[in-house]
Each structure stands twice: as structure tokens, then as C-alpha cells.
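Researcher: Please predict.
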Amino acid sequence: MTCQGEIVRYEDMDGFGTEGLDYFKLVNGGVASFVVRLHKQPVAKVRICRANDRASLFVSWPPGKDRPSIVALGRGAKCE
């Protein structure tokens, strides 16, 4: 996932595992980029906060399923 614009921060990151092993990130002024390895776990999410809006990545992988049921990128809840 890559977002461009005036990146302020990212927040509410949960469920992606260990940085450098399960996910990689680059957050630098005008770009925020996350590369993630999906795992069998209920929920993974992250919110990118930009000066005037935000974007969220959400993944739902229900127990017992062989793949995620939801992989969504969109406008999420307001940044804190």
C-alpha cells in the first residue's frame, strides 16, 4: 500500500507482525508505503494520516479459512 500527499503520521497499526520480517515501511514526508505479508489471524490494520484526509488498510482473515475474507483500502476513521 502506498499513499502520497502531506503525510503526518501513521497510527493504529496492529496485527502485521514484526517489522523487517513480516512487514516493511517507508514513511517520509510525501509518501507512506507499507509492504505486508498476510498471516492467518483475525484482523490486521493501519491508518495513514495526511494533512487533509486519511487512508486505512484493513484485512480480515477468519479462523479456519484458507484466505482473507476482506482486504480493503479506503478512507478510515478520523486520525487522533
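Model: Residues 8 and 22 are 24 Å apart (CA to CA).
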